[in-house]
Amino acid sequence: NGLKKYFPITGGIFGRKKGDVKAVDDVSFYVKKGETLGIVGESGCGKSTTGRLLMRLIEASDGRILFEDKEITSMSKSELRKTRRDIQMVFQDPYASLNPRHSIQQILEEPLIVHGIGNKQERKKRVQEMLEVVGLSSYHARRYPHQFSGGQRQRIGIAKALMTKPKLIIADEPVSALDVSIQAQVLNLMKDIQNEFQLTYIFIAHDLGVVRHISDRVGVMYLGRLIELADSEELYENPMHPYTKALLSAVPIPDPDIKRETILIEGELPSPANPPSGCAFHTRCSQVMDICQSIRPVERNLNGHSVACHLYE
Ligand code: SF4
Ligand code: MG
Q: Ranges for the ABC transporter domain (predicted)?
């Protein structure tokens, strides 16, 4: 609720503060148990920062994060450690998060050791179980990360996230680095695992196409702000914000009978260090009005479909 993350910009020889990059600027949303919330936006929109804030890998500048009625933002270190068993992350580049000198056994049992779960034998058994859950075999435990393909490494990243039996998984662009054919496999695997273990997902992506089939609801971010959020079907069929409309027009439609005009987003993405006044999208919006340049649109909720744009006020 009201989540903000400002990174200070310092400069000059005295390192004086010159201003803030508002990486996440007053973002609020909830995720229901068992559902998947997709969060979509271009790079630099604050979606990854939001994911890291939720886990308190970085500290919020302002706002509150609640997980099952417990406030993550005010937890002590030991409470936070306990809660982190329940919330795990899957990263875009599994290779970077897998220590190349550690065997898969060592990599997968690490979260259990950190949280003091199980003895050696139990850990070994859990590693074998989770390798099978993600479609690998127990003999893979003796191998090393470089012996696997990108898709297999992401399966290992997913197995690692599952080790502590989490309730919520925050997946930050988990398939962006993979070939399109492999993407579908990993998405299907994640969907199956969600059903099997009753997991809740926050699924971060830069492309509306990727999250379409996995998400129950989808939020769209632009320059640190959440500009639209709705049930998936509603968002894809009835996008309201001009930015969402433009993003969607770039997603190919499988049915060739449906014609859709491609809306081009003009201009470059402005720097998050110096976002436009008023509506941050006004420099690129085809429907820009006078008010958009000076007044920031507030979020309006129209039957569960929320949008921040002056066109709907
Ligand atoms: Fe475009 Fe104005 Fe809506 Fe922003 S508030 S998206 S500039 S119409
Ligand atoms: Mg990112």
A: 1-248
Q: Assess if residue 118 is contained within a domain.
A: no
The answer as to whether 139 is a domain residue is no
* Cα 188 to ligand 2 centre (Å): 22
CATH number of the domain at 196, please.
3.40.50.300
DSSP type of residue 307: E
Give 225-238 pLDDT, tens digit per residue. 999 999 999 999 99
Residues 69, 20: Cα–Cα separation, whole Å? 31
- Which of 245, 279, 291, 296 to probe ligand 1 with, by most ligand atoms within 8 A of CB? 279
CB 281 less than 6 A from any atom of ligand 1: yes
114 occurs within a structural domain: no
Which of the ligands is closest to the CA of residue 286? 1
Q: Is 277 in the pocket of ligand 1 (CB under 6 A)?
A: no
pLDDT digits (tens, 9 = 90+) for 15-42: 555 567 777 888 888 889 999 999 999 8
